[in-house]
Amino acid sequence: MEYKNKLQQQIDIYFSLPPILNQDFNDGVGLNEYRKISLVGKFIKKANFHLVNQVYKGEVGINIISVFKPHKINKYILVNRGWFPNSKKHMEYSKQPFHNDIIQNITIDGIIRAIKQKNFLVPDNEPDKNLWFYIDPLKMSKESNFLVNQKYYIKINDKPKILGQTSNFTRVKVHYKHHLFFSITWYSLSFILLLMYIHNFWRKKRNDK
Question: What pTM value is reported for the model?
Fold first, then answer.
């Protein structure tokens, strides 16, 4: 609980700061996780990756990760453009690409997120099938032929701006129950793996006698 409170305080501090703009991004100023960011630029056509096994409200789908180039800046960054259910993936995405891909100077608002290291329980990516189980900026750079930022990506703010609302950013909240659930899950899996290792170790030792 204490960790959650400290994390939320840090998020609130970053969230209170003005958003990072194109020039800040180019200079690498203030690039921290949970900072707001507002960039003008374009999405790179056909540089979209399917982050699979993403669950939203009990339904399995994919997150679309795209390569974005800020205007007049020779740098690229990955953008999580949102979630699509598996049932509609081919109908609404594959057959009708995002109309934003043809807009040269589109503005995206979002939050900077750190790219996490692959967990040993996460399957390997299958780039040839466009099946990605985790964000791999180095491999995605190779697949797209554009060198993207290796530390951060942008989680786009896909909620519509409310009439009279002065900001298009949604405050990030730490969900304690979610953190607790994942902590329990990982510790349980680790404990099960430990038991399996001990069982196999003693069985092998008995067989060697």
Answer: 0.72
